[in-house]
Design brief:
Blueprint lengths: L3 H23 L22 H7 L15 H12 L5 H21 L2 H7 L2 H16 L3 E20 L2 E17 L5 E21 L8 E9 L7
Antiparallel strand pairs: 1-2, 2-3, 3-4
Length: 227
């Protein structure tokens, strides 16, 4: 049998444990962060972006990209119908980035970068131009100042291949030097207004989401490739 002293000790211990638990539980407000950050989207992801696009008024679907009822808008409609994941604004952002990377890589003779961004036929043309330039002992330099415009001028679906042509308007420094370093084309100190139309293509049946350049046409740029 426990004596009165032992019972008092157990009671005191029980009271201490109860008060301790209460003080801890009272601090749990439900706002504590888990031991790792969990980022959730602000709204549930949609199973497919296509229904959302289809629900938009026809005149607003390509707002800022193509005029409603134009051949370009019709071509974009055709591409989006065949490929519900197609996002025109995202495409233009990527096209602008690819444009700058390709022009710069061409000047630097970076074949590895070009190969990842161009179709095989386009790459062969760029590679031949670089080889010819190297054979003459010439070097090229290009520095972008800005890309002032990127307008979709054509869009169509050829079988399972989507093709979109974009007209770029940019400002850049561009010059070609001979073996001695003398500028023989362009101007390394003067900004040049540059206008080109590039055609991007992608097989919509492919899991590869990347578009590749299949043709380029320059209105103005020193020794630019045309195809």
């Amino acid at each position: 049998m426990f004596d009165i002293f032992t019972i008092i000790i157990f009671l005191a211990l029980a009271v201490f444990i109860f008060l301790r638990l209460r003080s801890v539980l009272a601090q749990r407000t439900g706002r504590e962060r888990p031991p790792y950050e969990v980022t959730l989207p602000s709204r549930p992801a949609k199973a497919s972006p296509h229904p959302a696009k289809a629900s938009q008024p026809p005149g607003d679907r390509w707002k800022g990209i193509a005029e409603s009822g134009s051949p370009v808008a019709a071509g974009l409609d055709e591409i989006a119908t065949a490929d519900p994941s197609f996002d025109a604004k995202h495409f233009i952002t990527g096209a602008r980035t690819a444009y700058e990377m390709i022009v710069t890589s061409f000047a630097e003779g970076d074949r590895r970068q070009l190969r990842s961004l161009l179709s095989r036929e386009a790459y062969n043309r760029f590679d031949a131009a670089i080889t010819e330039r190297e054979g003459r002992g010439e070097t090229a330099e290009t520095r972008f100042v800005s890309i002032d415009g990127s307008t979709v001028t054509a869009a169509e679906l050829r079988g399972r291949t989507a093709q979109i042509t974009v007209r770029f308007v940019s400002k850049l420094f561009s010059a070609t030097r001979d073996r001695s370093g003398t500028v023989i084309d362009g101007n390394a100190e003067k900004v040049t207004d540059n206008r080109e139309e590039w055609t991007f293509a992608r097989n919509i049946s492919s899991r590869d989401p990347n578009w590749k350049i299949v043709a380029t046409a320059a209105e103005q740029r020193g020794r630019c490739l045309s195809a």
